[in-house]
Task: structure prediction
Amino acid sequence: MITTFVQVSLIAGVKNLMGALLFSTTFFANPDAPTKPTSFDASVYVTKAGKVRLSVAKVKPTTVTVLLLDEKQHVIHTTTIPKKQMKAGVLFDMSEVVDGEYTLELRSDDGLLLKQINLATPVRDRVIALL
Result:
């Protein structure tokens, strides 16, 4: 089994998010959503370094297309996992991407899987200290 890691640097804005980032990934629970594919499964999580890691495991050989979309459904990044590659990992560097909602769209011949990523920078309260 071969696992491929792809480092993706996304420059969608100039804003530098070097501080702590708030990420959350959720599965869309829309009853009108397309059928979940049976040929693969995927998981998404945030690393300690603040990057988003996507892991794809296939049950049967099929081509899987991965799209990262912004709030306006513009494609920011696309990757294709070849038919014969049964496991893959994609690492998204979100450090230079502006805050907002992003969608990971995974497509195969038998269905569609959507994962949502909410990117936000925490707001710090101003502290006044008397010396």
